[in-house]
Amino acid sequence: MMRLNRLSRITLTGLSLWLASSTAISQENFRPYPDDLLSRVRSAAQSLPGDLPQSIGFAKVAESHRPYSDIIEDGSDEQFISARAAFQIRYGRSTIMLDSGMDEEVHRYYGFGRTEPYFAETNKSLQQALFDAEKIIITHEHGDHVSGVIRSPYFRQLAPKTIVTEAQIESLVERPQLPQIQLTAEQADQFVVVEYGLIHAVAPGIVLIKSPGHTAGHQMVYVQLTGNREYLFIGDIGWSLDNITEQKLRPTQTIARIGEDPNALMLQMQWIKDRMDQDGLILVPSHDDLLLKKYAEEGILSDSLRL
Questions:
Q1: Which strands make up the sheet holding 282-285, listed edge to edge?
Q2: Residue 184: CA count within 13 A, CB half-sphere
Q3: Any idea where the domains of the chain sit in the sequence?
Q4: Under a CB-based contact definition with an 8 Å cutoff, are residues 102 and 61 in contact?
Q5: What is the pLDDT of residues 111-161, one digit of tens each?
Q6: For 251-288, how does the pLDDT look when each residue is reduced to its tens digit (9 = 90+)?
Q7: pTM across the whole model
Q8: Which one in 46, 64, 137, 145 has a CA-CA gap of 20 to 30 Å to 118?
């Protein structure tokens, strides 16, 4: 775990950096994934003792409504519903949460002045699921993914079991996406902070894959269930499955607003599409509402939480 002495150095310029640019990303030079990456991920998923997870559910705490042209290059004016969701990976007697939702104040930030659906009762259930979980994994450091922990009334219970990377912590201390999710050094030191090269197994069947580009601390999450069904949670590399299948990024103005690295994203999208087409992985973007509904109808994901 990263300790306070390092975080104290991080915070020296944190406020001035946030004032200069809350979306600036210090990216590594991202290289294409190696040809044997999936083989290595599968081996890592089997490397920890214990039974594999049995199923996966999700909870949608809010919706953001945007034209499809904000989601994908050359998109139409058709409405895209962005689901603000968190996922529950279920073992026989325990659960691991993937992302954490957000409270209504943070949700309003993403409305850009619009009033959009927020499901307060679902968020209460999500908070209970986070409290009950054995571990919490964060795909990246944006408010709709991490504020369910940071702003939770159970923060002191949730943070010590929430796994984040050094890059995520640095972003949340130095240059948070919005002021409401900025961490102090004392708060940051309560998280489980990991640093790894390319992949990291966190539980039987669950492997993190480093994927900076959308944010500096972005990571994908591979999940293998009993029966060998394989999922790849791609976070916000693409907001829609269409970003992957059509190999199209978000439009230029959206990339600039977020501060993304388009070259890194394209390399990741190419690898992700190959894994879907060649290896049959089930892709789960965090925000594709239509896809989540389809998966629920087909029994690929459950649209409820186990409490």
A1: 199-203, 206-210, 219-224, 230-235, 282-285
A2: 3
A3: 4-16+40-298
A4: yes
A5: 988 899 999 999 999 999 999 999 999 999 999 999 999 999 999 999 999
A6: 999 999 999 999 999 999 999 999 999 999 999 999 99
A7: 0.91
A8: 137
